[in-house]
Specification:
By secondary structure, this protein is of the alpha/beta class. It is built from three helices and eight strands.
Length: about 140
């Protein structure tokens, strides 16, 4: 079971609400498979139906991780009106070039976390996207640490 501190989950939910009516997106840095920080990234698509992370921010976050020794723990984004499950577009975007399912995704070790605002209570779920476009859910345990 994937342990994610409640403060990390709350920050992703807060970001999703703040960016309404559009999808929010960002990255979670971690170390030793433990999530540490949430990094909001501008959704340059500015859309309620899809997200596209600002490439300059992504580069800066990668450079910062290299300095701190942290890893990319997760990529997260919100769904404003659908369930917290990767859409076909989300799965295609996990690969480079998009949709090249015959190879490993761009970030094979990171989790893909979705925050759904479709219901009154936000739902947060985590997944691994594998070669072939296979989606595997990772159950989340919210911890207060």
């Amino acid at each position: 079971m994937l342990r994610i501190p409640k403060k990390i989950i709350d920050e992703m939910i807060s970001h999703a609400i703040d960016d309404l009516p559009n999808e929010a997106c960002g990255q979670v840095n971690g170390k030793n498979n433990k999530p540490l920080t949430v990094n909001r990234v501008k959704n340059v698509a500015a859309s309620p139906y899809r997200y596209s992370m600002d490439p300059l921010t992504m580069l800066k976050l990668e450079q910062a991780r290299e300095k701190t020794g942290e890893d990319l723990f997760a990529i997260y984004h919100s769904h404003v009106a659908s369930e917290a499950y990767p859409s076909p577009t989300d799965i295609r975007q996990a690969f480079f070039p998009p949709g090249q399912f015959d190879r490993e995704p761009m970030f094979p070790e990171c989790f893909y976390i979705l925050v759904s605002l479709a219901q009154d209570r936000p739902e947060v779920r985590a997944f691994k996207i594998r070669q072939g476009g296979l989606v595997e859910e990772e159950l989340i345990s919210s911890a207060d640490d």
